[in-house]
Amino acid sequence: MLSVRHLLGIKYLLKEDIELILHTADNFLDVINRPIKKVPSLRDITVVNLFFENSTRTRLSFELAEKRLSADVINFSASSSSVSKGETLTDTVNNILAMKVDMVVMRHPKAGAAHFLAQHVNAKIINAGDGAHEHPTQALLDAFSIRRKLGTLEGVKVAIIGDILHSRVALSNIFCLKKMGAEVIVCGPPTLIPRDIESLGVRVETDLRKALQWCDVANMLRIQLERQEINYFPSLREYAHLFGLNKELLNSLNKEIVIMHPGPINRGVEITSEVADSPHSIILQQVENGVAVRMAALYLLANRPD
Predict the structure, then answer these.
(1) CA dihedral 248, 254, 256, 260 (to 10 degrees)
(2) pLDDT per position as a tens digit, 1-36
(3) Which residues pair with residue 104 across a beta bridge?
(4) Is residue 130 scored above 50 in pLDDT?
(5) Residues near 130 by beta carbon (within 8 Å), at least 6 away in sequence
(6) Catalytic positions, please?
(7) pTM higher than 0.90 for the full model?
(8) Which residues contact 135 (CB under 8 A, 6 or more apart)?
(9) d(C-alpha 168, C-alpha 32), whole Å
(10) pLDDT tens across 32-91, in order?
């Protein structure tokens, strides 16, 4: 049983919680690869997907996971709701909960929104991304994907490369990987590396080639231009030249590494199409694994006594 009532961030999970989610996801991965892909685990459970930010991959992944578990699913988009008329987050959710919703999966542009929700409504909350804070299910599926590929997380060297400053994926990944015994380097332009990030137990590298020579796994993050209020580097062309992963650079390494990306990919910026579609890449496996991991999280939270 999980030690937490809500999945608000990796920061609040024990190593044992992560192990349980990954082990449960192994079982659900078998389920979604068989001819009959549905199980009745969440029958009579109602889940609302509450997205205050645009999302395609995460929302569809959660929706598919919920339907594979036989849950009743409500999809809510803030852009087409009373939120655009000034309704508060608490009012919106309480109105939905009045319809007897059991679980809420929420993405919100403000950090801490999921925590606020958990304190004010009587339902189990899964954080599907809150501002630049955390994205716990992405970190769990990334860890799951590495373990499926390499057999372990203990001692694995992972380089997280790109826009670390604005990335909720980076923060959740650091928390998750460190708890599971992996070593982590963050790499990117100095302007996109948060101050004091070494306090999280990671090393900083500003030379992409050195980071790639060191690592077993390279997790390439996209440049989050929508969260950047100033220019953190001269141009996308210069960024791609200094921090983009291309086939020539990959082939010049004296070893093979695993390539990951949480998506959506800016092809030709942080990664070229040749690399994204190469045998080194497990990007499509990450998408498949995401459904299994989210099934595991939903199942374990729904079956945890209050």
Answers:
(1) -50
(2) 999 999 999 999 999 999 999 999 999 999 999 999
(3) 48, 125
(4) yes
(5) 106, 107, 108, 109, 110, 111, 112, 113, 114, 115, 168
(6) 57-58, 85, 107, 135
(7) yes
(8) 127, 128, 129, 168, 169, 172, 262
(9) 28
(10) 999 999 999 999 999 999 998 888 899 999 999 999 999 999 998 766 555 554 567 778
Query: CA distances (Å), 205 to each of 150, 175, 184, in order?
Result: 24, 18, 10
Task: Compute the distance between CA of residue 229 and CA of residue 122 in angstroms, rounded to an integer.
Answer: 36
Supply the DSSP symbol for 204: E
Helix axes 57-68, 283-302, angle to 10 degrees: 50
pLDDT digits (tens, 9 = 90+) for 225-276: 544 454 656 588 888 889 999 999 999 998 999 999 998 898 999 999 999 9
**Quick one: which H or E segment has residue 175?**
helix 168-179
Exposure string of 105-127, with b = 16+ CB inside 10 Å and e = fewer, is bbbbeeeebbbbbbeebebbbbb
**Tokens at 237, concatenated:** 């062309």
Cα dihedral 164, 167, 170, 176, rounded to 10, equals 150
Q: Which amino acid is at 272?
A: T
DSSP helix/strand/coil, 271? strand
- Here the tokens at position 85 are 């008329």
The C-alpha atoms of residue 160 and residue 21 are separated, in whole angstroms, by 22
pLDDT recorded at residue 72: 97
Which helix (H) or strand (E) segment holds residue 68: the answer is helix 57-68
Residue with tokens 């499509």: 284
